[in-house]
# Entry
Amino acid sequence: MEAKQSEITVIVCFFLGLTSCFFAVYLVGFPLKYLIAIICGLLFLFLAFVINKYKSLNYLFILFALSIPVNLDINFFYRIHEGGALGITISLSILTAFIIYFYILLNKEVISSFEYEPALFWPTLIYMAAGTLSLINASYRDLIFFELLRLVLLLFIAFIIMNIKKKKQIKTFIVFLCLGVLIQSTLAVIQYKTGKTLGLGIFGEENLIKQFIGFKALRATGTIGHPNILAYFFEIVLPIAFAMFLIETKKRYKLYFFIIILTGGAGLITTLSRASWLVTAISFPFVFFTLYGSRLFQMKTAVALFIIGIFAIIPLFYACPVVIKRLTHTDYGSGALRMKLNRATISVIKQFPVMGVGMNNFAEVFQRFDKTGKSKILKGAKNVVHNLYLLVWAEVGTVGFIAFLWIFVSLLIKMKKTAYSVPIEFKGMITGIAAGIMAHLIHGMLDPGFKGSLPISILIYTLIGIFGAISIYCKNNFEKPVLTTYKKIYNDI
# Structure
C-alpha cells in the first residue's frame, strides 16, 4: 500500500514539474512586473499555509495593511485610460483579501461566521446600479464592466476587513496601516534628497516629477505611483495616526504614533501637493478639537502642545522654504486649467443629466461632447476633469451622483452616532478615519481623487471596513451604550 502511494506521489510530482516547465517557457515573455507579481502571489500563498499551521489570522491582516501602498498588480485586458478601472486588475491587496476569505472558510474555529454592516453596503450598490443604467449612453461598455468589477472587489475588501473580530486585532491593523506611512515617507525622503528613483519600479515606483518653484524641485512617488497619489495616502492615514497619538495611554505606542506623524509630515512635504497640505491643515485641528476640545484650557494640554510644538518646529524650519516657494510661486495656469475643464464638464452634464455618458467613460468622450471648446486645452489627450464630483456626475448622471454622495454622507453620519457611544479608544479610531476620509473628499474638489487610483480606492474601502468592524464589535460586546463608562475613561487619559 505504501509503495503504491509512493508511486502516485512520484507521478503527481512529475506532472507538476512538467506543467511548471511549460508555464515557465510561457511566462518568460511577460514583463518583469508580471513575473514579480506572480512570485509574490505564490509567496503570499506559502505564507498563508504557514499562518494556517499556527492558526493566526492576525498575520494575514498585517500583510494586507502593508500591501495597500505597494502598487504591484497584474492587469488583464489592459488599456491606457484615465479616471477609473483600466482593465481587470489583481493587486497584492486584493489577492491577500481572497487569501483571508478562504483562510476563514477553512478555519471555522477562527471565525464562526461572517458579519457585516448592511448600511455601509447599500449606497455603493445603488451607485453600481446607476452605473449599470449608464450603459444606455455609454460608448465603451467594457469600461463600465471594469469599473463595476472594481467596485465589487472594493466591497469584498470592506466585507473582509469588517470581520476583524477582536479589539486587539483592530488596533494592530491600525498600527501596521500607519507603518505604511513610515515606509513610504522614508522612501519619499530618500527620493527627494537624492533626486533619483530607487529601482523599485516593479513595486509601483514611478519616475520623479520635476516641478519648478523658483528652483528645480522633484516630487517623490514612494511605491504607490504618482506624487499626487502618494499625497492622497498621507492625507488619509496621517489623521488616524494623530488621533491614535492623542488617545493612546501606553508610552511606547504614543512614541510610535508621534514618529509616524513626524516622518509622515516629511513625506507629505516631498510630494509638493499643495491641496494635500491644505486638507491636512484642516483635518488635524478637527481631530484635536474633537478629542481634546473639552480639555483645551487645562494645564496638562498646554504642556503637551508646547512639547509637540518644540519637536515639530525643527522639521518645519527645514521645510518652510520649500513650502513657501510652492505656495507663492506661479502655478503655470493649473488653476485656470481646472476652471476651464470644470465649465466644459458642466456642459457635458447638461446634455446627459439623468444617466450620464457612462460610468468610467468620461475621459474617452470628454472632448467629443464638450460644447464650450475649453477641453481643447488638453491638446487631444484623453484626460478627466480635476474634480471628483463633476467627474462622477458626468459619468453616471444625477441619480448616480446622489448615490455616490450618499456613500460618504451616510458613512459620516453613522460614524458620528457611533463615536458618542463607544469607549475613547474606538472614538479616536473613528475620528481619525472620519478626518482622513473628509480630507480626501475636500481634496476631491481639486482632483479626481481615489476614483483614479486603485490603491487609494482600496484604502478608502478598507477604512469603511475598519469602521464596520468597530461597529460590529461594539454591538456584540456592549449590551447597553457605554457613554457613562466612556466619560470616566475619557477623563482618566
Notes: DSSP finds 17 helices and four strands in the chain.
